[in-house]
Amino acid sequence: MGWVMPMHKEELVLLHLTLFYIKRFFEEVGIANGHFREYDKLGIKPVHIHKSKAEHKKAVFLLCRGISDIFKTVDTELLINNPKVKEYLDSIPEIECH
């Protein structure tokens, strides 16, 4: 197990924002079905920069749990074949590997 540098609050807030956008994407495409209840109850959003580092850390963990639960409970085929997900995936340019 390697040594891990602790995150600065600004980095944690940026991670919180990134995960928040993933949460919003899943909600917009109709995949999230109560997976983020605990996060929503917490009431801490990425824009709440005055909140403590510990509070943002808890928000990050709750978002990760919600995202993880989606991948555990939603059938992969349903996820990939969701029209909005498909549209999003099709909009990502392919990367050529040499």
CATH domain topology: Substrate Binding Domain Of Dnak, Chain:A, Domain 2
Mean pLDDT: 90
Number of domains: 1
Structural class: mainly alpha
Strand residues, percent: under 5%
CATH homologous superfamily designation: Uncharacterised protein family UPF0058
The CATH class is identified as Mainly Alpha
Strand count, sense and barrel status of the largest sheet are: none
Name the helix and strand elements from N-terminus to C-terminus, one letter apiece: HHHHH
Through-space gap between termini: 32 Å
Provide keyphrases for this structure:
mainly alpha, 98 residues, 63% helix
In short:
The protein has 98 residues and is an all-alpha fold.
What does the model show?
By secondary structure, this protein is an all-alpha fold. The protein has one domain (9-90): Uncharacterised protein family UPF0058 (Substrate Binding Domain Of Dnak, Chain:A, Domain 2, Up-down Bundle). 63% of the residues lie in helices and 0% in strands. It contains 5 helices and no strands. The chain has helices at residues 9-28, 37-42, 53-73, 76-81, 83-91. α1 (9-28) packs parallel to α3 (53-73). The longest helix has 21 residues, at 53-73. It is globular and about 40 Å long. The protein starts with 8 loop residues before the first helix and ends in a 7-residue tail after the last helix. The model has no long low-confidence stretch (mean pLDDT 90).
